[in-house]
Write a structure and sequence with these properties.
By secondary structure, the chain is an alpha/beta fold. The protein has two domains: 245 residues, Zn peptidases (Aminopeptidase), CATH 3.40.630; 110 residues, Alpha-Beta Plaits (2-Layer Sandwich), CATH 3.30.70. The chain is built from nine helices and 16 strands. It starts with 9 loop residues before the first helix and ends with a helix.
Length: 373
């Protein structure tokens, strides 16, 4: 009911810390601003360490659901289900704390801020040492998935989610009267050519076996009108791929093509790429173990294989640092009309998913602690 935007999760962080304090779980509050890190030590705590991650931030969306737990913060909503992730991890922490005398090793619970906004809270927490003292051998994360029914989970080993970069372009020309374009350098016409040409980055330079997406979602001119050619046009977009080497090459090609084309047409171009989240890689062996343990816990009919996705997640930073498994938690219930996708004003979940979310994560942590790899 009280969602907070990325890196503004002040009350959320305090809430998590307060619940952990009530449970008697040792924790640190304030990493990456509002992040919370808890340690649940079993017998022989140094034997092996496993990490669990749940993100906490919300999105700038006005909620349209008519439910008792509807957002009370106008214009802010947990439309990506991070409240589910945090709630599940709190429940997992409670379960593990109650069972701490029945397992060996330590579980590190990471309540992360800022997943929805660059540079991503995961990268900041890693830089501030969240994966040290003690260092986990592996890490698990989960994310809500409306297409799957509550009570189910889905996984994919290997490359699972794309990298994500933000593109900001300013194309400058010389404005003037729309009826006399010969006296101007039209940045609108130049921008149109740039957009069409840059699409060839994927279709003509990219490996057909490597999924890539280039999308421009925003165009805005400064001072233009029906009969006025503006001085400049601003363009914003995203580039996503599943190959880090090609990602770097594509960045160079996009910048060179845009700058060269604009210059040839008499304009000037500022082409900036804000490097975002890397490719999310699910460790093959860990993900296969996770699938088997999920079947043990839920039943074979409740565990499915998923395809790769061109969406991005800053859990990818964890996956680049150590063996990681990021799986999907079913939250849908078509019979109750709970089918809306994430990032929409009507996103909701069947709360039965919380039981699966916290129970499975606790099960995975204990099973991973049992093994020596």
């Amino acid at each position: 009911m009280h969602p907070e935007l990325s890196f503004q999760e002040v009350q959320t962080g305090k809430f998590v810390a307060a619940r952990l304090l009530e449970l008697g779980i040792k924790h640190q509050h304030g990493m990456a601003g509002n992040g919370v890190v808890a340690l649940i030590e079993g017998k022989n705590p140094k034997k092996r360490v496993v990490a669990l991650r749940g993100d906490m931030d919300a999105l700038p969306i006005r909620e349209a659901n008519k439910v008792s737990y509807k957002s009370q913060n106008e214009g802010v909503m947990h439309a990506c289900g991070h409240d589910v992730h945090t709630s599940s991890l709190l429940g997992t922490a409670r379960i593990l704390h109650e069972l701490r005398n029945k397992f060996e090793g330590t579980v590190k619970c990471i309540f992360q801020p800022g997943e929805e906004r660059l540079p991503g809270g995961a990268s900041i927490m890693i830089r501030e040492g969240v994966l040290e003292k003690p260092r986990p051998a592996s890490i698990f994360g989960q994310h809500v998935h409306p297409p799957l029914r509550a009570g189910m989970v889905g996984l994919k080993p290997g490359i699972y989610m794309a990298s994500s970069d933000e593109i900001y372009v300013t194309i400058k020309g010389r404005g003037g009267h729309g009826a006399m374009p010969q006296e101007c350098i039209d940045p609108v016409a130049i921008t149109a050519q740039v957009i069409v040409t840059l699409q060839q980055i994927v279709s003509r330079y990219g490996d057909p076996g490597t999924p890539s997406v280039l999308t421009f979602g925003k165009i805005n001119s400064t001072g233009g009108a029906t009969n006025v050619i503006p001085n400049e046009v601003k363009l914003e977009g995203t580039f996503r791929t599943m190959n880090e080497k090609w990602r770097a090459e594509a960045h160079k090609r996009m910048k060179k093509i845009a700058e060269t084309m604009v210059k040839s047409m008499g304009g000037a171009c500022e082409f900036n790429i804000h490097r975002g989240y890397p490719v999310l890689y699910n460790h093959e062996a860990l993900t296969q173990r996770t699938k088997q343990w999920a079947i043990e816990f839920l039943g074979k009919d409740k565990v499915v294989d998923l395809p790769a996705r061109m969406t991005a997640e800053d859990f990818a930073y964890f996956s680049q640092a150590m063996p990681a498994c990021f799986y999907r938690l079913g939250t849908g219930n078509p019979e109750r009309g709970i089918t809306s996708p994430i990032h929409t004003e009507t996103f909701d979940i069947d709360e039965a998913a919380l039981e699966t979310g916290m129970g499975l994560m606790a099960w995975l942590a204990i099973r991973e602690l049992e093994k020596n790899y």
